[in-house]
Design goal:
The chain has 206 residues and is of the alpha/beta class. It is built from six helices and eight strands, in the order βββαβαβαβββααα. A hairpin with a 4-residue loop joins strand 1 and strand 2. The longest helix is centred in the middle third of the chain and has 18 residues.
Length: 206
């Protein structure tokens, strides 16, 4: 499908980070709602969407599709697909890696927890790899800075957390609105009828 123009009315949904965001672009303006994604995520998300779009209708939807935690992603992707289906409009997705790198404004390696292993992407054009704890630590030892979701640090093994000190983690200095502005303006998005989420793999217990 041909890349949609940025001026189309666009609903953006991010439920990957602990602080979820919903943005609605309409008539060259952007309105945004955010909420802490802990309990009652579905109610908070649909309330935010309803308040933002009011009686307006989006013409396309953009979702941060993961990888990420199960509940937040399931709620965000399900909502996006349902709205896209009901309004017969296209939906596209970007990965958590792309979104974090845009927010950090740095083309640095990103590491995310993934069960007993981790997911690693060296740079924006790099392949997403699944690494063992040992391989991840080898890479972290060589780096001064890294991008990750700081609030997810407890999801990493204790050995990896030792190499993820706060001064090593790049802050997300770019706000959600500017990040989505750049994504919608510059990215070659693949528009479809529905998208699928990319979950973190749950760690085995015991």
């Amino acid at each position: 499908m041909i890349l949609k123009k940025f001026m189309l009315k666009t609903l953006c949904i991010q439920t990957v980070l602990p602080k979820a965001e919903v943005l609605f672009y309409s008539d060259s303006k952007c309105r945004m709602k955010s909420f802490i994604a802990n309990r009652h995520q579905a109610e908070k998300l649909f309330s935010s969407i309803k308040n933002l779009i009011d009686n307006d209708k989006p013409e396309q939807i953009l979702i941060v599709s993961g990888p990420g935690a199960f509940t937040g992603l399931r709620v965000g992707v399900t909502a996006g697909n349902a709205i896209a289906y009901a309004l017969n409009i296209p939906i596209a997705k970007i990965t958590t890696f792309d979104y974090l790198r845009m927010r950090a404004d740095q083309n640095l390696p990103i590491v995310l927890p993934n069960g007993h292993d981790v997911l690693w992407q060296e740079n924006a054009n790099g392949k997403i790899e699944s690494l063992t704890t040992a391989d991840c630590i080898k890479k972290l030892k060589k780096l001064d800075k890294i991008i990750t979701i700081q609030d997810y640090s407890e999801r990493f093994s204790e050995e990896i957390r030792d190499f993820l000190s706060p001064d090593k983690i790049i802050p997300l200095s770019i706000g959600p609105k500017k990040a989505f502005d750049l994504i919608l303006s510059n990215s070659k998005l693949n528009w479809a009828k529905e998208i699928k989420p990319d979950y973190f793999r749950e760690a085995h217990i015991g």
